[in-house]
Amino acid sequence: MIAVNSKSAIRYEFPLWLKSAKVDFRRNQLAPVVLGEDQIFRIGEGGVFRRLRVLNTSFSSGTAGLSGWFFSEVQSLLAALHRDESETIARAAQLLAGQIRDDRLIHVFGVGGHSVIGCEEFFCRAGGLACINPMFEASLLLSSGGMKSTMIERVPGVGDKIVRSHAPEAGEVLIITSIYGMNAATIDAALEAKRLGLKVIAITSRDHASKTPADFVARHPSRKNLFDIADLTIDNHVPHGDAIVPGEGSGQKIGATSTILVSACVQWLCMETVRACEAMGVPAPVWQSANTVGGDERNAGYIRKYGGRVRCL
């Protein structure tokens, strides 16, 4: 379904599951309101169509409407990610390919909570790079306690020590996968990496960090955002608060997007890095699934090469 604003000639495409709607451009040309049968949407913030946002809905179509909304929104976010981050991904891939050419490790810090999933997505993954050194910290993992992880990632003076304990060298690269990009462990890790002479690549949400008050309790004392410090920032396009589907009773949104979006960033960056290596004539160290024929044999060489250098391997 498509509606066109006759004044601005902007076209708006609606999800297929939204079977009928009328568009009222009179209230605010830059943020038109779409009125469905029993649903209200706000779209086109800043005059640019990005995705639909439900303001009030009963989801009368049940689970089909609920899943339809979620999958449509995720597809829009992925499309925006692909559209907006191609140049940054290409630059980051060139940087990583240079590290592989020089036989250096690529360090990754995933902080705590669900941000660590981004770090795990880089590590020991079929089709992924074998030269990844993940900076895991047990006390920050959810398996050590969810509230414990949240508390420790807010403590200044933790992230810098985790980075330093891995003894990275000047000229190497640290990728920080922090969904929100603002807590103490994240910022301390980035600042320490810069102090040591590393290049920092951030995979983080500009939207969330920018919309979070400077005095918010989870912030680093400096009030800095990760994207203020990083040499390159890949915006994961995770919306403020992560979840996107409004709940009917509590008003709390449901349907988190960060794992999908961050994983897409990681896989995209790894693929472009392999492509950049090929352009340089450099063999890229790529894991084969251990659950396929020949996987153990192929991977054995990488284990011999990196086993003594990657702490978690």
Describe this structure in words.
The protein has 313 residues and is an alpha/beta fold. It folds into two domains: 10-59; 86-297, Glucose-6-phosphate isomerase like protein, domain 1 (Rossmann fold), CATH 3.40.50. The protein has helices at residues 63-84, 86-101, 116-122, 146-153, 159-165, 184-195, 206-211, 226-229, 258-280, 295-306, and strands at residues 2-4, 11-13, 21-24, 33-36, 39-42, 53-57, 106-109, 132-134, 173-177, 199-204, 232-235, 243-245, 254-256. The chain has a five-stranded parallel sheet, sandwiched between helices. The chain has a four-stranded antiparallel sheet with strand order 3-4-5-6, with no helix packed on it. It has a two-stranded antiparallel sheet with strand order 1-2. Helix 5 (159-165) crosses helix 6. The model is unreliable at 1-61 (pLDDT under 50).
Radius of gyration over C-alpha positions, nearest whole angstrom: 22 Å
CATH topology (level 3) name of the largest domain:
Rossmann fold
The CATH C-level name of the largest domain is Alpha Beta
- Widest beta sheet: strand line-up: 8-7-9-10-11
The helix tally amounts to 10
What general form does the structure show?
globular
Please report which band the strand proportion falls in: under 5%, 5-15%, 15-25%, 25-35%, 35-45% or over 45%: 15-25%
Average pLDDT = 82
- Between the first and last Cα atoms, what is the distance in angstroms? 50 Å
CATH architecture of the largest domain: 3-Layer(aba) Sandwich
Count every beta strand, where a strand is a DSSP E run of 2 or more residues. Answer: 13
Helix-residue proportion: 25-40%
- Low-pLDDT windows of residues: 1-61
Please, how many domains? Answer: 2
Structural class: alpha/beta
Most strands sheet:
5 strands, parallel
Which sequence of SSEs, written as H and E, runs from N to C? Answer: EEEEEEHHEHEHHEHEHHEEEHH
Oligomeric state? single chain
Q: Mind telling me the CATH superfamily name of the largest domain?
A: Glucose-6-phosphate isomerase like protein, domain 1
